[in-house]
Amino acid sequence: MKFLLIVYICSAISGECFTTPQYPKILDDHHDCVRAGLSDSYEIIYAEKNFTKDQINNSQLYPKFTCTPEEII
Predict the structure, then answer these.
(1) Where do the DSSP E strands lie in 1-73?
(2) Closest CA to 5 of 71, 65, 48, 64
(3) 33, 67 in Cβ contact below 8 A?
(4) Residue 35, C-beta contacts closer than 8 angstroms, at least 6 positions apart
(5) Please, which of 23, 33, 42, 54 could form a disulfide with 27 given CB 3.0 to 4.6 Å?
(6) What pLDDT does 47 receive?
(7) What is the pLDDT of residue 56?
(8) What span, in angstroms and rounded, lies between the C-alpha atoms of 7 and 29?
């Protein structure tokens, strides 16, 4: 069963979350989805330098991801 990964960056201050056009991603199984979710979350918020330390602190940003079984139509 394939899984759809969506990574969100959320703000505890505003209560809003957003994602990027690269999601959802289709992955082969739940294990791969969780692993990619953890890795992508880190990359987006820290490694890619999308956000400064001040932005993370001031907006209380945090990553969130979901792994949802792909619906077969």
Answers:
(1) 3-11, 17-18, 25-27, 61-69
(2) 65
(3) yes
(4) none
(5) 33
(6) 87
(7) 95
(8) 16
Residue type for 14, please?
A: S
> What pLDDT is attached to residue 48?
78
CA distance 67 to 15: 21
CB 68 within 8 A of CB 2: no
- Rounded Cα distance between 49 and 59, Å, is 16
Place of tokens 């791969």: 32
Q: How far is CA 35 from the centre of its chain?
A: 11
Q: Tell me, what amino acid is at 48?
A: E
The token duo for 16 is 């809003």
Beta carbons of 16 and 42 less than 8 angstroms apart: no
